[in-house]
Amino acid sequence: MKAFKMVRSLVIGLVVTQIITWVAPVVLADDLTKPTVLITGSNRGIGFELARQYAQRGWGIIATCRTPEQADALQNLALEYSNLVIERIDVTDFDSINTVAEKYRGVPIDVLINNAGILGDNDKQKFGTFDFSAFDEVMAVNTKGPIRMVEVFVDHVAASDMKKIMNISSAVASIQMTFGGQVFYRASKAALNMSMRTLAKELRHSDNPEYKALIFGLIDPGVVDTGFAKNVPIPMIQADESAAAVIQVIDSYDRKTSASFLRYTGQKMPW
User: Fold this and answer.
1) Per-10-residue mean pLDDT for the chain, 271 residues long?
2) Cβ atoms of 98 and 22 closer than 8 Å
3) Distance between CA atoms of 34 and 203, rounded to whole angstroms?
4) What's the CA gap between 125 and 134, in Å, rounded?
5) Does domain 34-263 have CATH number 3.40.50.720?
6) Domain ranges in the chain?
7) What secondary structure does DSSP assign to 209-271, as a single string?
């Protein structure tokens, strides 16, 4: 009898857990009826600040990163704001992207922010000693990942009121402004810009009327004082300052400025 009760308790626990897991997207769909933003790479730097500042606005936040269990600051932020949920997305792991997209099927996402990115090891980007495996990694995170995010989440964004697909680019993506160095990183961000501008043009001519209304953005956030840009010998801004300015630029994007390349100050960047 004792063994039976133990088994019954275990089964009930498993059933309850499964029910909670099954209804979670429905509950979240209700919670996220406000404007909703999904941010990749939200565990640190600009991504974390974007999540924090959108949470302060009262938006629904789907904050994603590769290893949520190690994202202490993001976990604490989720405890502070009930309108923020954390999901695991590694933009180089397409299964993880598909899993989150399926979980939030039917949930409109007003703003998708492709923020996750890596600089890559500078020593592996020097002419004469190029490490092309490092090149593949930088391109996978900075270019292929965002393209896949758009492909998988496009219906979530198209179903929203704002319909914005925003991408954290970089001034080093500008071909006109380039001065050498960081070949892999520059190439990946230039490819990101071209990819998103191409998608914006392509989807504007889609047979799907909701795709026609999508707004794309390419934003240089400035050189931010985070671990990502350490040892950069030029003036830097703080992550909270950059994120606040980036949000203003995101707010400013409309159909006329869709697919333009803007600095965090709102100025147009040269291609």
Assistant:
1) 42 36 39 83 97 97 97 97 97 98 97 96 92 96 98 98 98 91 95 98 94 98 75 78 98 97 97 94
2) no
3) 26
4) 8
5) yes
6) 1-31, 34-263
7) HHHHT-EEEEEE---BSSGGGTT--S--B-HHHHHHHHHHHHHH--TTTTT-EEETTSPBPP-
